[in-house]
Amino acid sequence: MKVGVLALQGAFREQREVCEALGTTVTEVRGPEHLDACEALIIPGGESTTMTRLLRTSGLHDPLAARLHDGLPVLGTCAGLILCATTILDGLPEQESFGVLDVTVRRNGYGRQQESFETTLDVVGAPEFPGVFIRAPVVEAVGPGVTVLAEHGGRPVLVREGVRWGATFHPELAGDLRIHEQFLHAARAA
Predict the structure, then answer these.
(1) What is the CATH number of the domain that holds 143?
(2) Active-site position among 14, 38, 172, 180
(3) Domain span at residue 101?
(4) How far, rounded to the nearest angstrom, does the alpha carbon of residue 4 sit from its chain's CA centroid?
(5) Any catalytic annotation for residue 19?
(6) pLDDT tens, residue by residue, 10-62
(7) Any catalytic annotation for residue 69?
(8) How many domains does one find in the chain?
(9) Residue of 34, 61, 152, 170 with catalytic role
(10) How far is 4 from 110, CA to CA, in rounded Å?
(11) Is 78 part of the annotated catalytic residue set?
């Protein structure tokens, strides 16, 4: 399986390293030409408004939107989740999302940089997962087809809707490969 990692900004190197540790071939996606061979995609954490601008200036936005709406499996972490969500709260006026994961997210919902934290999460299929939250969004609502795979403080932090996954935290920084392993297994099965 060939996995693309959106490599415009954010934690793309760490995402690539996790996928490679799982024996997956990885392509850093920086332009539309890199999407063709991707069988799944990871949109990393970073700064969602900056990523939105870079998607436009790189010419990637529309081809990526088309692939996602055609069913390309995707894992969006932190800012990546924001970009996949159907609704963004507290976003900038020019900020847009791909609208492929039926969740409502609030940018920086847990607070700014100084409110970042780590905690242990009870993830379905990956108990005691180390959750790393950095300026993390909050999932305010999930659609009827969304499965919540983990919560923190009664709020969803890991969700799945078919081949689309989203995490408010950074599993690539946890030193634990289980969430990526689950996502890649589901993507292969699709």
Answers:
(1) 3.40.50.880
(2) 172
(3) 2-189
(4) 12
(5) no
(6) 999 999 999 999 999 999 999 999 999 899 999 999 889 899 999 999 999 99
(7) no
(8) 1
(9) 170
(10) 29
(11) yes
